[in-house]
Design brief:
Helix content: over 70%
Strand content: under 5%
Protein name: DUF445 domain-containing protein
Organism: Zavarzinia compransoris
Keywords: Membrane, Transmembrane, Transmembrane helix
Length: 385
Amino acid sequence: MSVVLLVFGVAVVAAAPLVAAHVLLTGVRVPRRLRADGRLPSLIAARAGQIGGRIGSLTLDVVGPLNEVALALGPKDIAEAVNRMFAAEREQILDRVARAHLGVIWRSLPGAAKVQFEDHLAKTVPRAIDRAMDEIIAAIDDLIDVPAMQTRFFGARPAELSRMIETVAMPAFRALAVLLPVLAAVPMLLPVCVPGLQGVLGGVLLGLGVSLLGVAWLFTPPPARWRPLPARLFTPLLPERRMITAFYADTVADEAFRLDVVIDELVRGRAALGTRAIVERRVSAIFARLPGRLLLSLVIPPRAMQGMIQSATAELLDLLPRAAREPELTARCADRLRRRVVDCFEAMDELEFLVMQRNVLRTELPLLHVFVGGIFLAVGLLAAL
């Protein structure tokens, strides 16, 4: 009976990492009478927003500070794209803004006067956009809360986050499925062979110790003197480091910090008020230097002038998301950001790299310890019967 319990306990310990992986990463099948889709969502999917915010914070610690990440996107490139759009639509933008707030006054102006206004905008708006982009980059730490942005981004995409973490973490769980039963074989003798409460409690403590030791092995680089030993004796995360780095770079550049995602956060998200204030200051300076400004102030009510400033600001802000969706610009920005992420990750030493991977799931990994400790408890209770 003791031998059967020992074999059973070790076999279940071997299955524990794979069970934990399913609960964490892929979800669990349940009868359809309990859930219509027949599956409980994975713990990662259920906590996607929180984990996404954690990933954003950890990644920023590696590739930041934020203003340098923003510079990697290429603000001058973005400003050039916005300026090209403005140049193509300058006449229509001016006409929309002026008609909305000046009405008859604008329609009655001679064509030469309108051309003069358009020429003024052609000279001043590109400089204003360049300076506004510089101001936005300088203030981006105050404008964008990266963890909050990533919390919203991944919270709306739980399946994508689960697939991302599964790609990185599944090799580690498979390695634990081999290591944990080896570590657990001797400690499992305690709950099997020592009857009573002492064996049960001692077994639970040893089980937790086995699980903690396995996870510590997973996230600890091998000492230099052990390097000649076979690579399979060490954490599988280091041989996969290049793949994991590329995965982070693609996720940051093509998903989480993609140009249109950042611009949407600046223009339409929580940073919108700050971004608008920066652009509006530049637009106000343009209107303050309009040709014939003193004469215009006698004809145009202050409320109409302020309305034109606000409308012109809205027009320029509307160009930003449209420019951010230009395929060529998006690709160039993503390539620059991808190179920065790869360079920063490759500059990390092994321990820093492994600690970061551990911190991604720092509040979810204890689930594995609970499973292993529960197995030792169950074996001890069976042995006591």
